[in-house]
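Person: Please comment on this record:
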Amino acid sequence: MSWLDAIGWAGSALLIWSLLQTRILRLRVLNLIGCLVLLGFNWALGVWPMVGLNVVLAGINAYFLRRLWSTRHDEESYAAVEVGAGNEFLAHVLRTHSREIKRFNPGFDAAATTGRLGFIVVRGDETVGVVLLHDRGDGVAQIDLDYVAPRFRDFTPGEFVFRRSGVFARHGFTALVTPPGMVAPYYERVGFRRDGDRYRLDLPVAM
């Protein structure tokens, strides 16, 4: 196999791998790289129809990547809708994603609804994720569940929910703490600080 053939196979493999991604941002990035690799490959071979195809596909990916990045930190993209802990739609979301929820929140008990506040995070009419918490006293809210659907994990819904939405401060909370033992926590990236085996975020006072 020549080095040129290897480049062609690598580009094709990247395209296939990109289509297996559940995270839309990652899909677009990998697909763009694959298109650029195949563009160069077909250019070297003089296969101009394929060059044209990959130019168009690369342009489409670049366009949507620009749109995705422009809304990545846009707080108007998300809303936190408060629901009762026994809400049927909330229960449906928890059942649908129960396997992933257990993976990242191994200590979460969906049946323990007493005293919980529930928020469904949405983007337009799409469900982005779920936040469940309860009052620990002294103005501190304990996060019981913080789940984000796979396709939104490259974005920053947590940044909006915890730092910008103001929903927790309006309930009188002055701080949020995470449960111990969470898998792959991201909280330091959205302003939490480590506090023992947990993370803590001090909230601004609601105006």
The mean pLDDT is 86. The longest helix spans residues 48-70. Helices lie at 3-19, 24-45, 48-70, 88-96, 98-104, 157-164, 167-170.
